[in-house]
Design brief:
The complex is a heterodimer of chains A (514) and B (57). With 514 residues, chain A is α/β, with parallel strands linked by helices. Helix content of chain A is 43%, strand content 20%. Chain A has 18 helices and 20 strands. The radius of gyration of chain A is 23 Å and the shape is globular. Chain B is α+β, with helices and mostly antiparallel strands and 57 residues long.
């Protein structure tokens, strides 16, 4: 094998673009482990060194330089990979040049160019993000801060500054919002309506808002707070403002709040605020203790139930499909169980969406117990992402352990492939449980990626004279550009059972192994 | 101060992933992309010093 580093001096690209590029070139040469295209920061050089991809040229590069590190059979293969990498980058540059009139150099220039209410979407590297967000807030911009690696101290400072001005500062690590019908970050094309949502969870928000839209309801606004907002250290600052804005919004008649259980002091304040507002409100504290409905507040356990309850309160009515789905799960479970051997006893959940993984883990933990996971709540059930699964296992593949130097699996679901094959070939695996995310920001055709992987796994399983049950749910709106129906048909064509919601898919998996 | 975001026409400013800019444009909403580069060669210490100097000046 030959290794080559090519350095482009003073050539900046954001890490997400480069990770996606590395992954595409890696696929082209047959191994994503043999390609890294990165800015030459010290940390990135360490990553390349650890993977044996750093040569002298790369080591000598400075943080403003771009390094292509490629290892392949021979020079010709490296040349071809380099050509592909350059072609992808050039096509991106051409695309941005075509939009030239809407591209500016600084925040100040941008603010001067826009009118009306301003909202900034910030997905810069975490260490630079707070500085730019501060400038934006000072210019009276609402902010969706997608970046992670922003400290609690910075988060508090930014949120305090935002609250002084009555501005939204959603995040850090806020993946999704839909405001005035415009999807921001990872978002979906929703029907507009009278249900407003506020969530401290990205895919949790996407699941509920798309179910609402798919089943005849509509969304007024969908806001995110960032996952840390309801912890003691931040104190629910942004959830407070999000709820207040939804309570005051004439277009919002029903409110849905989604999060993991808040810190007790935050929960008390939040419940009081929701009660005071008077609007019918659905509260989904995933994994929280049972709470009795009281006045205008309705407490639910799953994301699907949050959508159903909101549809009921909004006057659309509970969706018949979701209800019917539950009653037929017993039959479906019986059919699927018939293909399994006695030794196949376990569920393996392989998730791109963090909150969906979390929801399945909670449901399985309640009904089956002992569910291992890289996001387990009990220490003894924590599974290192790189360790093989054991018993019932749910993995959040978007967790840092899997994504160092790689794009998030919602952008590049191919990262799941290797693990999917590993789980399929484990003779104890009965069910492989998956999510497929569509919508703005997500992969353009995620079902075809997972379908290819499932087809490969099925071929191997056939040789071993064994079958595994594949269950999936599509987190997305029927109107999303990837075409929900086509994505579903592609999976069903391979024998994958596709359910209307993640909660149903998890419930079916549980019934199959029970 | 009351936030009028839900009542007014909204303009989006994008800093970071170009794909987020593309998807807002595709939805027909006004959007400006900031072609952001790390200041001071990405040296966080130096950026802090420059910011401090600017505040003083």
């Amino acid at each position: 094998m030959k290794l080559r580093n090519v350095v482009k001096k003073n050539s900046y690209y954001d890490s997400a673009t480069l990770m996606l590029l590395s992954s595409k070139v890696g696929e082209h040469i047959g191994s994503t482990k043999n390609v890294a295209v990165m800015m030459a920061s010290d940390m990135n050089k360490d990553i390349m060194r650890a993977s044996g991809l750093l040569a002298d040229e790369g080591a000598a590069a400075s943080p403003n330089d771009l390094v292509f590190a490629i290892r392949a059979e021979d020079d010709a293969a490296i040349d071809a990979a380099m050509a592909l990498a350059e072609e992808i980058l050039n096509s991106r540059n051409t695309k941005m040049e075509q939009r030239e009139t809407d591209v500016v150099k600084t925040v100040e220039d941008a603010v001067a160019r826009v009118d009306g209410a301003k909202l900034a979407v910030v997905s810069l590297p975490g260490k630079f993000a707070a500085r730019e967000v501060k400038k934006l807030l000072k210019e009276d911009c609402n902010v969706l801060l997608f970046s992670d690696n922003v400290s609690c101290e910075e988060e508090n400072q930014l949120k305090d500054l935002a609250l002084e001005k009555g501005l939204l500062m959603m995040g850090p690590d806020c993946g999704t919002a839909v405001i005035n019908g415009v999807g921001l970050g990872f978002a979906n094309k929703l029907r507009r309506g009278n249900i407003g949502l506020a969530a401290a969870s990205g895919t949790g928000l996407q699941e509920v808002m798309t179910l609402i839209s798919n089943f005849g309801g509509g969304v007024s606004q969908a806001l995110g707070t960032g996952g840390r907002d309801l912890k003691e250290v931040i104190g629910g600052k942004m959830m407070g403002l999000c709820v207040q804005m939804l309570q005051q919004d004439a277009g919002t008649q029903v409110i849905v709040v989604i999060s993991k259980p808040p810190a007790p002091s935050v929960m008390e304040r939040m419940v009081e605020q929701l009660k005071q507002g008077g609007k019918p409100t659905v509260v989904c504290f995933l994994g929280g203790e049972d709470m009795a409905d009281s006045g205008n507040l309705h407490f639910v356990h799953t994301l699907e139930e949050a959508a159903c309850k909101a549809l009921e309160l909004a006057g659309t009515g509970r969706p018949a499909e979701l209800r019917a789905g539950h009653s037929s799960l017993a039959d479906l479970a019986r059919q699927q169980k018939a293909v399994l051997r006695d030794s196949q006893r376990y569920i393996r959940g392989l998730y791109c969406g963090g909150t969906l993984a979390y929801e399945s883990m909670l449901m399985m933990e309640e009904k089956l117990g002992g569910v291992r996971s890289n996001i387990a709540l009990k220490k003894e059930l924590l599974l290192d992402g790189t360790a093989p699964s054991a018993g019932h296992t749910v993995l959040d593949l978007g967790d840092d352990a899997f994504t160092v130097g790689k794009p998030h699996p919602m952008i590049e679901p191919a990262l799941r492939g290797e693990r999917l094959m590993q789980e399929a070939l484990d003779p104890e695996t009965a069910v492989i449980l998956l999510d497929v995310e569509i919508g703005y920001g997500s992969h353009a055709d995620p079902a075809s990626v997972v379908a290819g992987e499932i087809a490969q796994a099925k071929a191997e399983l056939e040789a071993a004279d064994r079958q595994v049950v594949f269950l999936a749910s599509i987190c997305g709106a029927y109107e999303d550009f990837q075409d929900y129906a086509a994505q579903k048909a592609m999976l069903e064509g391979l024998g994958v059972v596709v359910l209307e919601s993640n909660a149903q898919a998890a419930e079916l998996a549980i019934r199959i192994v029970s | 101060m009351e936030n009028k975001l839900f009542e007014e026409k909204m303009s989006v400013i994008n800093l970071g992933l170009p794909s987020f800019f593309e998807s807002v444009k595709d939805q027909g909403a006004p959007c400006v992309h900031v072609d952001w580069r790390p200041p001071a060669g990405g040296d966080v210490r130096l950026i802090e010093i420059l910011d401090r100097l600017r505040e003083l000046g």
